[in-house]
Please model this.
Amino acid sequence: MTRLTLSKAINEGLRRALEDDPKAMIMGEDVGRLGGVFRVTDGLQKDFGEHRVMDTPLAESGIIGTAIGLALRGYRPVCEIQFDGFVYPATDQIVSQLAKMHYRSQGKVKLPVVIRIPFGGGIGAVEHHSESPEVFFAHTAGLRVVACADAADAFAMIQLAIASDDPVIFFEPKRRYWDKGEVDTAAPLEDALPLDKARIVVAGDDVTVLSYGPLVRTCAEAASAAREDGRSIEVIDLRSLSPLDMETIAASVSRTGRCVVTHEAPVYAGLGAEIAARVTERCFYQLEAPVLRVGGFAIPYPPARMEDHYLPDLDRILDAVDRTFDF
Model:
């Protein structure tokens, strides 16, 4: 086991993928010599060359369009979008081309493109640097949408994403880049949890709390705090946002009878609404309370000095847990 930050774990996962597959390549703004804004690709261009780790112009639509062409020629491009709010110029390429090509070709064409997007708030950034755009892509058929939450999972998930024949939107919680964890870098990739499976982070019996990305750690802290009050919270990291692992989710909620869904994105029409609807359909007769949601507010992301009031925190999550016991 090696203790790594989440960003370094992704770096090691990218390195492993580049070593294992000569058709894998990385492209994006400043990913080469600089190693990316968050240094996630640090050292990779030096070791693999400019033809495998390429700096691109500041043109997100061009990055994704080029990646689609490369994938059509048999390559496995990994594109980095510097910040979540910068992905919107590339949305046309992602939604209209990347997500549709396999279906349009009746399965004859595969586009194994991975798009890495640092997402979420908590770093005191300026406008357009703290978005949570995952629901746009989860709503788009033809894309896998995943989010890592810790170093060990990030190391395996990025390799699984690159190995997938499907286009993958890979969300990385930027405020967790410096969180450290134990990573088994020698474990065979075949032993890793599949990309489309959720995982139980904290086992519990009284209420199920579902989350992903940056809030998984916050939910685990909430479970620890609730234990002092005699409540047992089961925390599930969704990992895959599209498709959802409803088997794991339904099994947990059917047992606990209560469910809270948390994410940084606004609650209105967010991913939590879809999950709440599906949980209600699957677990209606087992539910002891309505499925509650905790998330951002229906406003543009606020200035950095106010983001602590916007982002869900331990107190807001525990308040939702408490409210599920009022019914």
